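Field reference: sequence -> structure
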Amino acid sequence: MKGILFLTVAALCLYGCKGTMKGTVEHVHAHEAVEHVHEGHEHGDAHDHEKHEHGDAHDHEEHGHDHAREEHGDEIIFTREQAARTEFEVKEVTFGTFRRVIKTTGQVLPAPGDEAVVVATTGGIVTYANQNLAAGYAVKKDDKLFNINTKNLGEGDYYARVNANYEKALAAYRRAQGLLADKIVSKREYEAIQLEFRNAKIAYDAIAGQKTPRGVRIVSPMGGYVKNVLVKDGEYVTEGQAIATVSQNRRLVLRADVSEKYFSVLKSIRTANFRTPYDNRVYELEELSGKLLSVGKAASDNTFFVPVSFEFDNCGEVIPGSFVEVFLISSPMERVVSIPVSALTNEMGYFYVYKQLDEEGYRKQEVVLGANDGRHVQVVKGLKRGDRVVTKGAYQVKMASASAAIPGHTHNH
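Structure field:
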């Protein structure tokens, strides 16, 4: 009985011991598993953190590239080789003096005494002395221009009639001189005969040296060029009729027509620039020995414009009679940013210039303009002192911008 009881107790103790060991082992394994999971979590966190940092760096790098592309995306590349093939110039913007401008229209006219009208000294059929006679034909003083023939007219040859009247008056005058000495004619009669003789002599002297086989010749009264021919070859003309104009073309007059609203500031005008329509060139009167002649005190008849006149030397390229664009130069303005007109480009009514970024890089810059004297223009907004601007060749830079693509461009700014 005791033996059975002992075996039972021993079995129970052995079972309890196995359960305890099993629990201990399971607990140890569970603890190791927890530690392993924790280590794995830490390793995952470290890997994720490293991945996150790498991703942030990559995103930051891409953002930097995007920013660089955005910063230089509007840059235009115009190489030194391209610039060398055209007239190209870049200048730095500075402050300077610029004068106020009144923009208007006007006309170039011959100066007083610079032109002479050629008239017919007698009536008859006019013929050209030179078949090349036309506007622009160069002449010297006393060069023959026309012949006027009266032989086949009803009144007969004019020269023959004038010569006959002169000889008749001369004979009567000489006879009267002898009769006056003998007191056969009165003093009053003698004076009448003398007057008739003098008139006949004036008419004769006017054409005495101009008689040719083709008629009475008409000569140029001055050297210069033929401005216009007013008659056709073979046309009938009357005595005193204008048949041509000869101009020296040395001095010209610029007449500007100014609106009445500027009347109060006309007293400050001293010079002007003007642009011709046939060559689009701007002339400065200061470079042509120009001077102010007069400023009108009232508007012209049937207009609302006040005339302002200047006189200047003709450089040989200005056409008298042409209508021009006039820039009247008025009082000065200090510390003004101005650039040559050649630096401007126009797109849909907006004006742009090209700023230099580096040796071969440029950027289009919109500008707001002020006064314009034909050669330079005031910049109110868009540029500052120190900016470098393309002043010659802006159109070529504009053409280069049409196909400008700069991926991989590595200019440093």
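Note: Residues 1-71, 405-413 have pLDDT under 50 and may be disordered.
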